[in-house]
Amino acid sequence: MPSSGQIGLHYAYKASLIGSAHQFDLTEQGLSWRISGRSGLWPYADIASVRLSYRPVSMQARRFRADVGNSSGGRLSIFSTSWQTAALMAPQDKDYRDFITELHARMAKAGSRAVLTGGLGPRLYVAAIVCVALVAIAMGGLMVQSAASSQWAGALFLVGFAALFAWQVGGFVRRNKPLTYRFGEVPQTLLP
């Protein structure tokens, strides 16, 4: 949905099946947005924060999010996927990447002093690590119990489940490690 033009870069996505698309434009004046009948223009120098994160959902495993905040306390969320039908969420990988990269470039050019962070907040990340560790301990205990009682089918199931869990949750935890970055170093793990 984005397009390069003389005025700027455009990006749009549907956050839900009901309602209009969330539309964003990078203009000469700043970040212009239109969401559910509301609109605004944030000068690049007034953008106070950008947080990039990886946020998969059941309908789309490759879903990324950018939370943009301005100096007045306003917040915008920009997702890398768009709802198409009740069962289809379409990725917009290249368009999202291009838009977020260009937003950072324009903010840097405007002399923005925004706080640039990635991943989950530190407290939430620690809570996620603790939960993963508890699940790993529980699954290890179940595997030992299955092996001790010669329940090989159960042990094999637990090994398969542990591999799937490590693949799914491990990727989420690895990508969402809390970090700060600079304008010229946008973290590639938090972009599609």
UniProtKB/TrEMBL annotation:
<keyword id="KW-0812">Transmembrane</keyword>
<protein>
    <recommendedName>
        <fullName>Bll5862 protein</fullName>
    </recommendedName>
</protein>
<feature type="transmembrane region" description="Helical">
    <location>
        <begin position="124"/>
        <end position="146"/>
    </location>
</feature>
<feature type="transmembrane region" description="Helical">
    <location>
        <begin position="152"/>
        <end position="173"/>
    </location>
</feature>
<keyword id="KW-1133">Transmembrane helix</keyword>
<keyword id="KW-0472">Membrane</keyword>
